[in-house]
Amino acid sequence: MKNNARIVGSLTSLLSEMPKQFECDIIELRLDGYYNKENYLKFCQSCPYDILITARDIREGGITELSEDERSRRLRDILPEAQYLDIEMRNWTAMSSLIKEAKNHNIKTVASYHDFEKTPPILEIKSIITRQLEFGSTDILKFAFMINSLDDLVTCQKVLFEHPNLTISIMGMGAYAPAARVLLAQSGSVLNYGYLGETPTAPGQWPASLLKKATSLSTPIKE
Predict the structure, then answer these.
(1) Contact in structure between 204 and 175 (CB atoms under 8 Å)
(2) DSSP bridge partners of 22
(3) Which residues pair with 97 in a beta bridge?
(4) What angle do the packed helices 96-104 and 68-78 form, to 10 degrees?
(5) 3-state secondary structure at position 137
(6) Distance (Å, rounded) from C-alpha 101 to C-alpha 191?
(7) Helices (H) and strands (E) in the chain — how many of each?
(8) How far apart are CA 144 and CA 165, in angstroms?
(9) Buried (b) or exposed (e) across 19-41, using 16+ Cβ within 10 A?
(10) CA proximity to 46, closest of 66, 70, 68, 22
(11) What's the start-to-end Cα distance of the chain, in Å?
(12) DSSP E strands: which ranges in the chain?
């Protein structure tokens, strides 16, 4: 299996002094925290990396509770500067007009699903995938699950191995997360998230620079 893993460095807010270079491939801008349109646009326009934007729903790990209209507004503000747009699967229909705008501008869409308590059984995950694909307009399927056992980690690997024709990002959270994120990147997860700055955006998340080093030194795993 060819390793196409890309490291996404997540920023919950713009740093007071932005470094000239980050050790990642894509920068995720979390627009669900402190937000200043002008500052974010200025950052994007000078940033040499691809930009992924999301305004996370509070039910799936959002930093602050924002209305659907406010999240849509923030995303629409920055959309012209982005290469990727992340919308939760639960909000895919509600934000269909924004998704259509993204597709019209050749911006890749990421359909995300988070479970902060467990890893669902493989059949349930397959059902989630099937439902999402019926909507269309999905370029990348993204999952983040709480890994409570080694069996959960095997389940995540199976999702990748059993769907070789889909573009899937899958990550673990919790105590097993550090090992899971490297292993799943080796196994075919296309987007693999670490954090930039001082604050992780998910339980057990690596700093992006360390995750990039770990995945670049690792050998892709074959089924």
Answers:
(1) yes
(2) none
(3) none
(4) 10
(5) coil
(6) 22
(7) 7, 8
(8) 20
(9) eeebbbbbbbbbbbbebeeeebe
(10) 22
(11) 8
(12) 6-11, 26-30, 50-54, 84-88, 108-115, 140-146, 168-173, 191-195
Query: What's the Cα-to-Cα distance from 73 to each of 70, 130, 199, rounded to whole Å?
Result: 5, 29, 25
- Specify whether domain 6-217 bears CATH 3.30.70.380: no
Q: Which residues contact 142 (CB under 8 A, 6 or more apart)?
A: 86, 110, 111, 112, 113, 168, 169, 170, 191
Both tokens of residue 78?
């920055």
C-alpha distances (whole Å) from 197 to each of 12, 54, 84, 117, 215 are 9, 18, 21, 26, 20
Q: How far apart are CA 190 and CA 7, in angstroms?
A: 8
- Pull the structure tokens for residue 128: 């989630």
Question: What whole-number distance in Å separates Cα of residue 39 and Cα of residue 78?
Answer: 11
What are the backbone dihedrals phi and psi of residue 142, each rounded to the nearest 5 degrees, phi first? -120, 130
pLDDT per residue, tens digit, the chain (223 aa), is 445 789 999 988 886 556 667 889 999 999 998 899 999 999 999 888 999 999 999 999 999 999 999 999 999 999 999 999 999 999 999 999 999 999 999 999 999 999 999 999 999 999 999 999 999 889 999 999 999 999 999 999 999 999 999 999 999 998 898 889 999 999 999 999 998 877 777 777 888 888 888 887 554 444 4
Q: How far apart are CA 206 and CA 15, in angstroms?
A: 18
Residues ≥6 apart with Cβ < 8 Å to 216: none
Global confidence as pTM:
0.91
